[in-house]
């Protein structure tokens, strides 16, 4: 089921940009928009979206005051703040009022997408966990912080370390996308037509980036075998 989104932004060009971005991200549906704070609050109260993309500087009622009013009235809506403000006081206030992310203008599509995909993953995990352990809470907290989100493949590609090649990484990712269950270095090496030593470097990088899970498989004899598995939300085509 798609996540309902409302955009509150007073700049028509930025508003249209938000609309285009949301339409490019799977799993989200735009259900409303407004260009001033008062109208925006009324819209939130009426529609009750799961997530609001909220600009801080808006006429009538600024974003921080709107967010504070939303919390005071008990409306169960999450908020991502978007603003040109760089000062720590504004950012701190947004976090104190419960914003789950804070995007500073100007920003890229990848940063916007990252915020929504992290939120999508957060919702997925919330819905799949009934009785939370401390570890579950810690994982959820990590997904809503500014740390790198799980399976942010665009970020992984952009920050590829020295010594690794983007074309080879793309090839490895494409092959991994088609795998089901656990796979080994030898499996990917055979399919990619590149050496095991090279494949291992790329798989280790993907594990460090939290795109893959790694385990040691112990057989009856011989050395343990490293095996890998995609993270649950892994997708090259997101």
From TrEMBL:
Residues 4-120 form the Response regulatory domain. GO terms for cellular component: cytoplasm. It is found in: Cytoplasm. One of its GO terms (molecular function) is phosphorelay response regulator activity. Keywords: Activator, Cytoplasm, DNA-binding, Phosphoprotein, Transcription, Transcription regulation, Two-component regulatory system. PANTHER family: TRANSCRIPTIONAL REGULATORY PROTEIN DCUR-RELATED, TRANSCRIPTIONAL REGULATORY PROTEIN DPIA. This is Transcriptional regulatory protein. It comes from uncultured Sporomusa sp. The lineage of its organism: Bacteria, Bacillati, Bacillota, Negativicutes, Selenomonadales.
């Amino acid at each position: 089921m798609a996540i309902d989104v409302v955009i509150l932004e007073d700049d028509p060009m930025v508003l249209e940009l938000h609309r285009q971005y949301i339409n490019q991200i799977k799993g989200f549906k735009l259900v409303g928009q407004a260009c001033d704070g008062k109208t925006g609050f009324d819209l939130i109260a009426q529609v009750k979206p799961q997530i609001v993309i909220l600009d801080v500087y808006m006429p009538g009622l600024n974003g921080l005051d709107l967010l504070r009013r939303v919390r005071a009235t008990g409306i169960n809506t999450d908020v991502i703040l978007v603003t040109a403000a760089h000062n720590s006081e504004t950012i701190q206030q947004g976090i104190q009022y419960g914003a789950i992310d804070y995007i500073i203008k100007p920003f890229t599509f990848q940063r916007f997408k990252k915020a929504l995909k992290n939120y999508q993953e957060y919702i997925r995990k919330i819905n799949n966990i009934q009785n939370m352990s401390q570890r579950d809470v810690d994982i959820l907290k990590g997904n809503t912080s500014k740390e790198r989100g799980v399976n942010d493949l665009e970020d992984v590609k952009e920050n590829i370390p020295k010594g690794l090649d983007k074309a080879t990484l793309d090839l490895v990712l494409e092959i991994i996308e088609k795998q089901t269950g656990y796979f080994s270095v030898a499996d990917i090496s055979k399919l990619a037509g590149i050496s095991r030593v090279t494949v291992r470097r790329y798989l280790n990088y993907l594990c460090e980036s939290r795109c893959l899970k790694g385990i040691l498989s112990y057989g009856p004899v011989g050395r343990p075998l490293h095996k890998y598995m995609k993270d649950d939300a892994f997708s090259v085509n997101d």
